[in-house]
Amino acid sequence: MNIHLWLPQLFSFNGGIQIYSAFLFQALQNLFPDSRYEVFLKHDVETSSSITYLPQTQFHFAGGLPTKFRTPLFAAQLVGNGLIKKPDLVLATHLNFAVASLILKRLVGIPYWVVAHGIEAWNIQNRAVKTALMEADLILAVSSYTRDRLLKEQNLDPQKVIILPNTFDTHRFQPAPKSDYLLAKHNLQPTQPVILTVARLSAGEQYKGHDQVLQALPQIRQSIPDVHYVIVGQGSDRPRIEQLIAQLKLQDCVTLAGFVPDQQLCDYYNLCDVFAMPSKGEGFGIVYLEALACGKAVLGGNQDGAIDALCHGKLGALVNPDDVEAIAQTLTEILMKKYSNTLIYQPDSLRSLVIDTFGFEKFQLTLHQFFQKSPLLSNIANF
Q1: β partners of residue 145
Q2: Cβ 7 vs Cβ 21: under 8 Å
């Protein structure tokens, strides 16, 4: 089997789509080690040792192309290589690549699958992308929330839109005591209650909910005076967030940790007593899984893909992301060990459940089942 993978990035960035792409790539190579893989990367310029791959894998990098012309040149590269090499399947991990997939299918009949994550899959207005989705052989939605929105907004065939949820690195994220070096770095006491959010501080991602947690802090401090809020992440929206912190007079109880290296991220999860990201625009939210794998209580919003990540409230608390009072009350209850779902206080059970539900083995098994059910690829998948 010859598979062409079309990815935004794989080696140079660790956003949600890139992490999903890496796990998908790994699962495919585990399932079909004798297949030929050609991987087309729009923004990367080289490989790295962070991701292993089979020796027969061939990479095509477009990251060195001028930014102004990169999109059309990358599209031409995708279609040109597809016409010459005629893969058995094109698998694109971003909806914007679906248009090039459609061109190939109409010209030479190559089937294509495309992944739908979050905001890029909601309220699609681009007519070419809408058509490409209609003609896709399979759409892999990362959550039932994204799938439901696609079906409602794009009038797609429900049989062609299936769910392959996000997964995470179970070995990298594990429960551990609060790290002494982080306690010292941020001037925290070992028993001090800590709320954590991990998110890019981008003006386009204010939906993550850190503003609402900040607005909830004064109410939380009435019951828990020594609570501390740590936000991990960097971005252009930081000055506005700093201004909000000053307006709310929270300088003494909020830490903007900025960029955190991957090797320290698990330590930050274990620094907190509750992970809070009451967002309203997440397609899924890998950070919820990472926090749960560290055995942490988690709070998410009840209007996006967090519903899937927290299994409709089984694995954590879901709140109205616009209701600051509800956020404050729920976080207070969690920190005071009064929340009704006592599972969130059982780290080992939380970790076990999130691995059983969203671990890589489950991800890989689900992907294999999709290949077995595909009328075009079932013979190859069963080989």
Answers
A1: none
A2: yes
Residue 161 amino acid letter: V
Strand order in the sheet with 194-198: 254-258, 228-232, 194-198, 274-277, 297-301, 317-319
Helix axes 286-293 and 262-271, enclosed angle (nearest 10): 70
pTM above 0.85, yes or no: yes
Nearest to 213 by CA among 327, 338, 335, 330: 327
What torsion, rounded to 10 degrees, do the Cα atoms 127, 132, 138, 144 define?
A: -20
33 phi/psi in degrees, rounded to 5: -70, -15
Cα(370)–Cα(128) distance, integer angstroms = 26
Phi, psi of 105 (to 5 degrees): -65, -40
Provide the token pair at 288: 């919820």
State the DSSP string of 79-127.
Answer: HHHHHHH--SEEEESSGGGHHHHHHHHHHH---EEEEE-SGGGSS---H
| Identity of the amino acid at 107 | L
pLDDT tens, position by position, for the chain (383 residues)? 899 999 999 998 778 899 999 999 999 999 999 999 999 999 999 998 889 999 999 999 999 999 999 999 999 999 999 999 999 999 999 999 999 999 999 999 999 999 999 888 888 999 999 999 999 999 999 999 999 999 999 999 999 999 999 999 999 999 999 999 999 999 999 999 999 999 999 988 889 999 999 999 999 999 999 999 999 999 999 999 999 999 999 999 999 999 999 999 999 999 999 999 999 989 999 999 999 999 999 999 999 999 999 999 999 999 999 999 999 999 999 999 999 999 999 999 999 999 999 999 999 999 999 998 876 655 555 54
3-class SS shares of the chain: helix, strand, coil, % to 5:
50, 15, 35
Three-state DSSP state, 5: strand
**Domain annotation for the chain: domains and CATH numbers:** 2-167+359-381 (3.40.50.2000), 180-356 (3.40.50.2000)
